[in-house]
Amino acid sequence: MTTLRFPPQATTLAKALTLQPELWQRPQVQGITIDGPDSRDLDDAIWIEPTDTGAILSVHIADVSELVAIGSILDKVAIARTTTQYFKNGNAPMLPRPLSEDKLSLLAHQDRPTLTVQITLDRNAQIQKTEIIETWLRSSKRFHYQEAEAAQKDPQHPFQALLEHAYLWAEQLYRNRLNTGAIGATLTAQGNWLTEEGSLIQGKRHSSHLLIQEFMILANRAVALWLAEQDIPALYRNHTARAIAPDRETMYQTMLSLGSPEAIRQRLASWLNRATYDPTLVGHFALNLPAYTHFTSPIRRLADLINHRIVKAILKNQDSPYTKTELEQLGKHIAQVTRDNEKQTSDYFKEKHQELYQAQVQDTEELANTSEKEFSKLLKYAIEKQEMEALMPQLKARLDTKRLQLVDLYLLLFESEDKALQQQAFENLKANVQDTASIISMATAQQAEWESFDYLDEQQSQTAPFHTWLEVKINGSILTTVHPSEHQRKQPAHHQACLQWIEAYLKEALVPPEQRIKPEPSEQRKSLLEDLEKAEEQQKQKQTKASKTERKEATPSKLMHPILKKELKDGQLFVSLLMQLCQGLRLSNPEFEFQEGEDGFICECQLEAMNQHFTGIGTATKKQRAKHLAARDVLEQLQARALQV
Length: 645
Fold this sequence. Notes:
Low-confidence stretches: 547-559
Radius of gyration: 30 Å
Number of strands: 18
Mean pLDDT: 86
Strand order of the largest sheet: 1-8-7-4-3
Number of helices: 22
Distance between the termini: 63 Å
Structural class: alpha+beta
Number of domains: 3
Shape: globular
Strand content: 15-25%
Largest sheet: 5 strands, mixed
C-alpha cells in the first residue's frame, strides 16, 4: 500500500504555493458541498437553477491544475500514487494535505479557483448544452450527507428549496439511467447500491448520496461527450462486458433473483471486465453510456487532474499537454498501481485472517459458541487453506445437528474435496430440497467455470406430471442428468431436478443433453392420457358449437376485470388484489413458494390463467414484502396479456 509520507520537497512546495490574484478575475459562481462528515478533501460543489424549459445544473470542481504543474514534484507524487486511498482510520492522500485539505479544498466561505461544468437540461433531464468555464467559488455551505437530507425535509432551512429541487432532478436522472438499461450506480432488489462498475457499496446511504451520485455522473458524462464531439484524446473511462456475459435484461433479472450480496458480487465479477483509462473511446457498459470519463475529483484521482489539464488547454486554444501515447502509458500505469494496491491490501487481510483463524480454532469453547455467520467465514478459510483438521469436530457436530447455513453446504459440496463431507452435506440438503436451487445459484455465481443454468420442462398434458432436467453450462458445455425429476407441480420438479443434478455431480455421473433418457409412460398412465385426450377433444367440440356471440361476450368480460384496469402503485396490497382477481375470474388461487437467502427471501408466485402459466418473482428482506412483489409481477403480466387480447 502507498506510504503515508510524502517526500520533504513535495510537502515544502505544497506549503509555499499560493493562489494568484488573477484567479479572482474569473466569473464567480454559487455552490454548496455535500460530503462525508470526516472529509476535508472537498473537490466538488453543486448548484441548480430552474428555467422555463428545464434547469441549468452546475458542478464546480477544484481547479487543481492551477497549483500542481506538469513535471513538478507534486505532479510526480500524484503520478506515483494515482489516487487517494481511504482506510478505516484515515487516508493516504494523492496530494500533500496543505493542498488536498486546505488550499485546493472547497471549504465553506473560502475563495477557491474552480472549473465549472454547466449543463442545460430540458424537462426530461436530457442534456441540451454543455459549457465548461474557468470560475471561482466561495462555497455557501458545507453539508454532511445526513445534514443535507435533514435540511431537504426542513421547510425553515435556507437551502431547503435548492436541495429539494436538486433531489427531484437527481431522481429524474436516475430514472432515465434505469430506463436505458444501466447496471452501474443502481440499487439492487436487496437494497444494496452498486458502484459505476458494478461493485457493491458497503455502509448506509442517504438520499443526498443519490443527489451527488447523479450530478457527478452527469458532469462526467457531459465532459466526455464534449471531448468526444471534438475528437480529443483524453483519459476516457472505458468499461466492457466479458464474452460470456448475457444480455442486459438477463443480467438484471438474475440480480433480482439472487438473495445474497456476495452472490451478486461474484456473478457481476464473472460477467464484467475491469474499467480502464484509455485515450481511445470505447464506452461504458455498466452505465450504458457511449462516452464517459472522470473529471469531478482531481484532488483524489490522477485521471481527473490529467483531464482537467487537457480541457483547460482547449479552453485557451492551446495544444493538449499530452500525446496519445503518453495517455496510453498513464492509463496502464494507473491500472498497474491499482492492482498492486489491491494485492497488498489483500495480502494484509489474508495475514490478519490467518492470525484470527488460528486463534479461534484453538479455543474449543469459543469455537462451539461461534455464530453461524462467523463459522461460515472460518469454514471458507479452512477449505481454501486446506486446514480442516482443527475445525472438523465442530463441523461434524453442526452437520449432525443440521446447524449449517446454505453457504456452508455449498462450500462442502463444491469447494471441499472431502468425499465424506460432501456426502454428509448432501444428506443435509435432501432434508430441505427447496434449498437446492439456491445452492445451484451460489455455485453458478462463484464457480469461475460455471456460466449459467436452466431447466428443461416436459409435460405430456395439463394433468400429467412435470419431467424436469437441470442443465448447467460449464466451460462452454452443458451437463445434465440422465433421468429427469418428476412432480405434479413445476417448482417442486425444479427443486428435485437440482437435487438429482448435485447427486450426479458428486458421483461424476453427469451427461451431455443428447444422452438423457426420456421416461416412458406406464400402461396405466397411457390409458389415462388417452382418456384425457378424448375428454379434451370433446371439450373442444363443445366450445366450437358455442355461439360466437357468447364467446365474444365471455372473453372480454374476463379480460376486462376492473382490477386489470387499475394502475399498480407502491403501497398497494398486491396479494389481496391478485386473490380478488382470481375469485372474480373463478381461477384457482395462486401458489406462493419461498426460498430464504443470506440477506432475505425470494418468493415465486405461480398462477394458471387465460390458458397460460404465469410466474412472478419477488425479492426482499421481509417475507411478506417478497410475496407482495411476486404478486405484483403476476398482476403486471396479466395486465399486459389482457391488453393483447
